């Protein structure tokens, strides 16, 4: 009897945890963005994507200066620091949760680290940071853009 109660309790707890994880995974920010913000973000994402591709080839061929320039470009594109109007900033803050802002900051911090590692001509460190940045793309997209990137929804 006692055991059964315990088992029942554990099941309930797991169900509650499962529920909160689900809510976490499926909380896309995209529907909450204004058209203008969505456009700015997509533009930034495309430039990040092309910078990442060129960093990849520069990194594997030891072109440290190119890695540095591109990583610095990613760092400087930080959407919060861009020329957003006051209204844009308000709109953005009301559209995205704290977790999103934190992921964005972490991502740009990694880019700054990558620029540093390129300056030091440290290929191993570049490799590690590049992988961490890729992890950031997946983490943010699977958590906050799961409506568009539904192939990541289960991550
Ligand atoms: C902090 C969150 C975040 C991080 C980190 C992030 N993205 Fe995104 N990304 C978004 C959001 C939000 C959208 C969807 C914007 C929209 O459709 O309104 C997006 C969309 C995109 C798109 C589609 C752009 C388009 O034309 O519609 C590409 C490509 C992309 N991201 C690449 C990347 C790459 C590559 C990385 C990592 C190197 C990355 N993103 C990291 C949030 C993020």
From TrEMBL:
<dbReference type="GO" id="GO:0020037">
    <property type="term" value="F:heme binding"/>
</dbReference>
<dbReference type="GO" id="GO:0009055">
    <property type="term" value="F:electron transfer activity"/>
</dbReference>
<dbReference type="InterPro" id="IPR002321">
    <property type="entry name" value="Cyt_c_II"/>
</dbReference>
<dbReference type="Pfam" id="PF01322">
    <property type="entry name" value="Cytochrom_C_2"/>
</dbReference>
<keyword id="KW-0732">Signal</keyword>
<dbReference type="GO" id="GO:0022900">
    <property type="term" value="P:electron transport chain"/>
</dbReference>
<dbReference type="InterPro" id="IPR010980">
    <property type="entry name" value="Cyt_c/b562"/>
</dbReference>
<feature type="signal peptide">
    <location>
        <begin position="1"/>
        <end position="25"/>
    </location>
</feature>
<protein>
    <submittedName>
        <fullName>Cytochrome c</fullName>
    </submittedName>
</protein>
<dbReference type="GO" id="GO:0005506">
    <property type="term" value="F:iron ion binding"/>
</dbReference>
């Amino acid at each position: 009897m006692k055991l059964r109660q315990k088992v029942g309790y554990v099941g309930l707890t797991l169900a509650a945890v499962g529920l909160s994880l689900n809510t976490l995974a499926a909380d896309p920010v995209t529907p909450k963005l204004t058209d203008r913000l969505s456009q700015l973000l997509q533009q930034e994402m495309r430039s990040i994507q092309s910078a990442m591709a060129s960093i990849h080839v520069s990194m594997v061929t030891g072109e440290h200066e190119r890695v540095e320039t591109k990583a610095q470009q990613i760092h400087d594109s930080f959407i919060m620091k861009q020329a957003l109007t006051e209204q844009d900033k308000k709109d953005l803050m009301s559209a995205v949760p704290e977790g999103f802002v934190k992921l964005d900051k972490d991502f740009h911090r990694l880019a700054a680290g990558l620029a540093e590692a390129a300056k030091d001509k440290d290929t191993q460190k570049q490799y590690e940071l590049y992988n961490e940045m890729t992890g950031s793309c997946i983490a943010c997209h699977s958590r906050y853009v799961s409506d568009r990137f539904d192939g990541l929804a289960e991550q």
